[in-house]
Design a protein that fits this description.
The complex is a heterodimer.
Chain A: E1 13-14, E2 17-21, H1 27-42, H2 44-56, E3 64-66, H3 68-74, E4 78-83, H4 93-106, E5 111-116, H5 120-132, E6 135-141, H6 142-147, H7 149-157, E7 161-165, H8 172-185, E8 190-192, H9 203-211, H10 213-226, E9 232-236, H11 241-247, E10 257-265, H12 276-279, E11 281-285, E12 287-292, H13 317-324, E13 329-334, H14 335-349, H15 355-367, E14 376-381, H16 389-396
Helix pairs in contact in A: 2-4, 3-14, 4-5, 4-9, 5-7, 9-11, 10-11, 14-15
Chain B: H1 3-14, E1 18-24, H2 30-42, E2 48-51, H3 62-73, H4 78-88, E3 96-100, H5 102-108, H6 110-120, E4 124-127, H7 136-144, E5 148-149, E6 152-153, H8 159-168, E7 173-176, H9 191-200, E8 207-210, H10 216-223, E9 228-231, H11 233-241, H12 248-261
Classes of the chains: A alpha/beta, B alpha/beta.
């Protein structure tokens, strides 16, 4: 297994993946960001400020719930849920936003910009900006603004300006393009608070570090409860921050298997899904080298998922590396399987999860019956489903 | 010396500034691009940047974004673009610089592309999202083929970065006039003067200034400090305004003459 937890290298490479593919104007700002982050990471004061906010503001540690009725229903493995949905703002996104928000403050930046897909990262960013007295502007595709209207309203309540993006497919990829255009223009005054393990170095490393609290807690909790490690970890993968956040602390535990679940959408043709590992090939998009859904000419493909948070053409470079190493298995769940999973979890456990997280539950439904009761399946329930109730209602009535 | 190097040397001897217009290949179709390039040369273009459309042009403002969308909607491919370049080369010796993002070039196979581009008559490459940190491999391919590699220097580049950019560049260095995306501006940024000075202290390569250069006055201001002026969005905007006109190419030529001559 080697030193899988010790990547990336000093230039931000995870094996062949990652790196820095951005216009020159952003290169020195990325160097400054990396230096500021590495210094903060060594500073016990920064870590204790962050730990304090994670505990007293976001409510960490989040519980690890044993899902007895779901396990019984599936008949096989014992399922545990890591309850990131119980964080303040309702998803794991706040872990990263608190870390980067403190870093923006420390760097003396007054203005924060962010992109958002499902709106969970936008809400978490707007929340942290309100808390830390930072100006906040969020870019969001107009298609996503329609399907996640509740989160648009929440961001505005929190004092953020939300800019609709009407270019391209009007989803997360286009929101990132616009955020980068803003950043390249206002780079001296502005902190770009990226919400996943994407884009140029140091973002994939930094966001992973801030999210790795999920796996550190989960590992301790499961050992305390069961006295042994899980059989398999399961998490959904859009950019991949909740997944890498859960997986990272277990990478050296050779007996622990890991599954990342991508959006299978409504079909296997290009444009009908967001399953980068089965349908894409390595390429360069928005700052990093990773698997990308694209056509033969290297034009980025349209994607589809019922879940806005997984609807993206590329995936974090560390996932690409761990996939090639064979350390993590990647699969996908269709829109239909996801809806069934969301319903099942709601009825058996009383938890309405986000559509993103329901993709992971869909994989649990496939895996659990083939395992034994003593096999522990640990699922990252990355977010709650309030934002998706309308989407689910509309899909159910179709 | 390459075609680009010889052109800068000739302009230096003649004591004049170099005019570098940009065209998005295939906007709105390749036949129009071909005619526009020939008209631009007739209007006094010294070097022409040919933009390879990419679906996600994150360094570009709205004008070039729209040009990209038009070209892709009409089915642009790199293969067709290179065939057009080969045809152009039967009519003109104006230096041609291929300008793009890395992914469409990488997807084609970079080595295969450089060899094909050289055969068809491309003189150099500028890849806007390829930082010098990631450029080692592509640079070796370009050098082996004897093609120029042009890198961007920005107002935010440190002297240390400019040193590396200069070492990696040949033909000229492209100085980005301001932080931001491509697009016409009313006035030129003051930041560019100190950037040019800092580039000069590292290299004797010619410097061309772009981003926001869109009026005759801007060109003259640039030429008083640097060897070349790049005009992108203003040219593409002129193509857009004249879309559907039978004499579109001539009109772009007239616009280029006005920019260059200022009358």
């Amino acid at each position: 297994m080697g030193n899988m937890a010790q990547i990336p290298d000093s230039r931000g490479h995870f094996g062949p993946y990652g790196g820095k593919f951005v216009p020159e104007t952003l290169m020195h700002p990325l160097e400054e960001l990396e230096a500021a982050y590495l210094e903060a990471r060594r500073d016990p004061g920064f870590q204790s400020d962050l730990d304090g906010l994670l505990r007293d503001y976001s409510g960490r540690p989040t519980p690890l719930s044993r899902a007895d009725r779901l396990s019984k229903h599936l008949g096989g493995a014992t399922v545990y849920l890591k309850r990131e949905d119980l964080n303040h703002t309702g998803a794991h996104k706040i872990n990263n936003c608190l870390g980067q928000g403190l870093l923006a403050k420390r760097m003396g930046k007054k203005r924060v910009i962010a992109e958002t897909g499902a709106g969970q990262h936008g809400v978490a960013t707007a929340t942290v900006c309100a808390l830390l007295d930072l100006e906040c502007e969020v870019y969001m595709g107009e298609e996503d603004m329609r399907r996640q209207a509740l989160n648009v309203f929440r961001m505005r309540l929190l004092g953020a300006r939300v800019h609709g993006v009407s270019s391209g497919s009007q989803t997360l990829k286009d929101a990132i393009n616009e955020a980068i255009r803003d950043w390249v223009t206002n780079v001296r005054s502005t902190y770009y608070l990226i919400g996943s393990v994407l884009s140029a170095h140091p973002y994939p490393m930094m966001v992973r570090d801030f999210q790795s609290v999920i796996g550190k807690e989960a590992r301790e909790q499961i050992l305390e409860r069961e006295g042994r490690l899980p059989h398999t970890l399961v998490a959904c993968v859009g950019g991949g921050s909740n997944a890498i956040g859960l997986f990272h602390a277990f990478l050296e535990d050779e007996t622990v298997a890991m599954v990342g679940v991508e959006a299978g959408g409504r079909g296997s043709n290009l444009g009908e899904h967001a399953a980068r590992f089965s349908g894409g090939k390595p390429g360069i998009l928005q700052g990093t080298y990773s698997y990308v859904l694209q056509d033969e000419d290297g034009q980025i493909a349209k994607t589809h998922s019922i879940s806005a948070g997984l609807d993206y053409a590329s995936v974090g470079p560390e996932h690409a590396f761990l996939r090639d190493q064979g350390r993590i298995r990647y699969t996908s769940a269709t829109d239909e399987e996801t809806l069934a999973a969301l319903h099942l979890l709601s009825r058996t456990e009383g938890i309405v999860s986000a559509l993103e997280s329901a993709h992971a539950v869909a994989e649990v439904m496939r895996m659990a019956p083939g395992l034994r009761e003593e096999d522990l399946l640990l699922v990252n329930l990355s977010g709650r489903g309030d934002k998706d109730v309308q989407t689910v209602a509309a899909a159910d009535s179709e | 010396m390459t075609r680009i190097g010889r052109m800068f040397e000739r302009a230096r001897q003649q004591g004049r500034g170099v005019f570098i217009p940009y065209v998005t290949l295939g906007d709105p179709d390749l036949e129009t691009s071909r005619r526009v390039v020939l008209e631009l040369e007739a209007a006094g273009a010294d070097l022409i940047e040919l933009g390879v459309p990419f679906s996600d042009p994150l360094a570009d403002g709205p004008v070039i974004q729209r040009a990209t969308e038009r070209a892709l909607a009409r089915g642009f491919t790199l293969e067709k673009g290179l065939a057009m370049v080969a045809d152009l080369r039967r009519h003109t010796q104006v230096p041609l610089l291929l300008f793009s993002y890395y992914n469409p070039l990488f997807a084609y196979g970079f080595e295969r592309l450089v060899s094909a581009a050289r055969q068809r008559g491309i003189d150099g490459f500028l890849i806007t999202d390829l930082s010098v940190e990631e450029a080692e491999g592509p640079l070796a391919v370009l050098r082996a083929a004897g093609l120029d590699s042009v890198f961007l220097a920005a107002p935010t580049s440190t002297d240390e970065r400019i040193r590396k950019i200069a070492a990696y560049s040949s033909g000229f260095i492209y100085a980005v006039s301001r932080t931001g995306v491509t697009g016409a501006r009313k006035s030129l940024s003051g930041e560019v003067e100190s950037l040019i000075r800092r580039i000069r202290s590292q290299t004797s390569l010619p410097v061309a200034v772009g981003f926001g250069v869109s009026e005759p006055d801007h060109l003259r201001q640039v030429w008083s400090r640097a060897e070349g002026a790049v005009v992108g969005s203003a040219i593409v905007g002129c193509i857009e305004r004249n879309m559907g006109q039978p004499d579109l190419a001539q009109r772009v030529g007239e616009f280029a003459r006005w920019l260059k001559g200022g009358c």
